[in-house]
């Protein structure tokens, strides 16, 4: 956004005019949200975010609202537009340490914006604690102070805002956790910067939504049949661990795959057969069995990992499918099987088209990509993108703020997955949904994005008390 602001100024836009629109938008929101406030307390920082605060304070005073300004730095030290805003404010201000909360106060946080990349000073941390202890409502300007706009991580301490007013577009810190929980309701205000300047700096990072996959998803036609809708195969674990594969298979069937087969060890056939109706069953015990199974070219898409158990066989099966040109969703035990052999996995799926989707949770991500997981300088989207480049496939970095990343540099953040998904078997269901979408012909990134979205929507439709069985049954096609 700093580069966007600079580009706007270079095109002849009045930078102070942009600041005035931003600050006045915050004032308008404050008056609308808290018409009964006894006093608006505006906390002004040392940069342009503080300048927005001074503009806001001036607008509140013009509206007749009781307003008090507390400054982090001596106003004489301000420069540029921030200095002009402070001068135009023309009211008095006090040092930050003079602020004492009063019942009826509404705090407008204009200390630091989205560009914060360091720990907040001790006096700010103490102020945040004071405001939090007093349970005062906070309106954040751009982003709650203390949050890193690129990662959503807390830099020492951060305000918990009831409302955030940001400008032109949301930032990653508004969507990634814990930032999402600290922003409250986020309002995006267009201050008049040409959108082409924003797009030029935004990069290929999106909030996950149907527009990502809609153009590549083929709608069912009247002449379609089950084979045209795709055949999904899910590998089963041993006879004592067959449930995870069945969850994946059922989710794949519900998500629209025309046929779904569980490829089961001979010893687990009976355990699987007793639970299956529309889902087919095949005996696949070893590499030779898999070779025979792959002779049918219609068997293009596979899920490997849920409840699978055997790491050596998992590696052999995954490599075989990569070499055979198949699509694979690698989950759970399949991911862990490659913890010391990631290069082998990447080599097996080399090629122009991306055919591999890997779906790790936090622990599995650290096992498969330890050097990336340990890099504290990277935000979650950057970690997911680095992992996608390393493995040559799409990475679904799961969590309450799941990030889907492609080796071509695209990434999406899911923001509507409910906490009820934190239940055993939920990831198995997701793997089956993504597999079904791959089987139907969606490219890997689009299939992963759609799968994550459908997974969250199914959970929302079930509501509290969700189990993985409920989740699989609630899946709808894209």
UniProtKB/TrEMBL annotation:
K(+) binds at residues 49, 109, 145. GO terms for molecular function: ADP-dependent NAD(P)H-hydrate dehydratase activity; ATP binding; metal ion binding; NAD(P)HX epimerase activity. Residues 209-478 form the YjeF C-terminal domain. Residues 1-199 form the YjeF N-terminal domain. AMP binds at residues 398-402, 427. Its EC number is 4.2.1.136, 5.1.99.6. Pfam families: Carb_kinase, YjeF_N. Keywords: ATP-binding, Isomerase, Lyase, Metal-binding, Multifunctional enzyme, NAD, NADP, Nucleotide-binding, Potassium. The keyword ATP-binding applies. GO terms for biological process: metabolite repair; nicotinamide nucleotide metabolic process. The keyword Protein biosynthesis does not apply. Binds 1 potassium ion per subunit. It catalyses: (6S)-NADHX + ADP = AMP + phosphate + NADH + H(+); (6R)-NADPHX = (6S)-NADPHX; (6S)-NADPHX + ADP = AMP + phosphate + NADPH + H(+); (6R)-NADHX = (6S)-NADHX. Its cofactor is Mg(2+); K(+). (6S)-NADPHX binds at residues 48-52, 113-119, 142, 244, 307, 361, 428. Homotetramer. In the N-terminal section; belongs to the NnrE/AIBP family. Belongs to the NnrE/AIBP family. Bifunctional enzyme that catalyzes the epimerization of the S- and R-forms of NAD(P)HX and the dehydration of the S-form of NAD(P)HX at the expense of ADP, which is converted to AMP. This allows the repair of both epimers of NAD(P)HX, a damaged form of NAD(P)H that is a result of enzymatic or heat-dependent hydration. Catalyzes the epimerization of the S- and R-forms of NAD(P)HX, a damaged form of NAD(P)H that is a result of enzymatic or heat-dependent hydration. This is a prerequisite for the S-specific NAD(P)H-hydrate dehydratase to allow the repair of both epimers of NAD(P)HX. This is Bifunctional NAD(P)H-hydrate repair enzyme. It comes from Rhizobium glycinendophyticum. The lineage of its organism: Bacteria, Pseudomonadati, Pseudomonadota, Alphaproteobacteria, Hyphomicrobiales.
């Amino acid at each position: 956004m700093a580069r966007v602001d600079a580009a706007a100024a270079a095109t002849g836009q009045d930078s102070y005019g942009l600041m005035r629109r931003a600050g006045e938008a915050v004032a308008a929101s404050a008056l609308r949200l808290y018409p009964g406030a006894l006093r608006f307390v505006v906390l002004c920082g040392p940069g342009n975010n503080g300048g927005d605060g001074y503009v806001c304070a001036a607008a509140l005073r013009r509206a007749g609202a009781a307003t008090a300004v507390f400054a982090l730095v001596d106003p004489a030290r301000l420069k540029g537009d921030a200095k002009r805003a402070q001068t135009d404010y023309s009211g008095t201000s006090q040092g930050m340490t003079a602020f004492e909360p009063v019942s009826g106060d509404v705090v407008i946080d204009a200390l630091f914006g989205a560009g914060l990349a360091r720990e907040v000073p001790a006096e700010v941390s103490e102020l945040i604690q004071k405001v939090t202890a007093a349970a005062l409502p906070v309106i954040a300007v751009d982003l709650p102070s203390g949050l890193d706009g690129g990662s959503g991580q807390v830099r020492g301490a951060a305000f918990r805002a009831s409302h955030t007013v940001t400008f032109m577009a949301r930032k990653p810190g508004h969507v990634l956790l814990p930032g999402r929980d600290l922003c409250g309701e986020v309002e995006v205000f267009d201050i008049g910067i040409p959108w082409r300047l924003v797009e030029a700096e935004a990069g290929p990072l999106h909030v996950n939504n149907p527009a990502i996959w809609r153009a590549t998803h083929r709608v069912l036609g009247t002449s379609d049949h089950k084979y045209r809708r795709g055949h999904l195969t899910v590998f089963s674990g041993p006879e004592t661990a067959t449930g995870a594969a069945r969850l994946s298979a059922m989710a794949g069937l519900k998500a629209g795959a025309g046929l779904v087969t569980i490829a089961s060890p001979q010893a687990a056939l009976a355990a699987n057969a007793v639970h299956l109706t529309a889902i087919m069953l095949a005996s696949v015990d070893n590499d030779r069995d898999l070779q025979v199974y792959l002779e049918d070219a219609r068997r293009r898409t596979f899920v490997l990992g849920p409840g699978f158990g055997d790491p050596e066989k998992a590696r052999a099966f995954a490599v075989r499918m990569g070499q055979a040109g198949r699509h694979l969703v690698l989950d759970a035990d399949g991911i862990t099987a490659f913890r010391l052999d990631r290069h082998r996995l990447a080599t097996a799926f080399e090629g122009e088209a991306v055919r591999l989707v890997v779906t790790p949770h936090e622990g599995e991500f650290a096992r498969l990509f330890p050097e990336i997981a340990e890099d504290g300088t990277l935000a979650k989207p950057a970690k997911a993108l680095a992992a996608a480049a390393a493995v040559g496939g799409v990475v679904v970095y799961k969590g309450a703020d799941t990030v889907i990343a492609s080796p071509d540099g695209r990434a999406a953040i899911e923001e509507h997955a409910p906490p009820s998904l934190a239940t055993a078997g939920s990831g198995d269901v997701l793997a089956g949904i993504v597999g079904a979408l791959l089987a139907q012909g969606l490219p890997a990134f689009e299939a992963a994005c759609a799968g994550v979205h459908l997974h969250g929507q199914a959970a929302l439709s079930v509501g509290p008390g969700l189990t993985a069985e409920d989740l699989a049954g609630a899946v709808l096609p894209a």
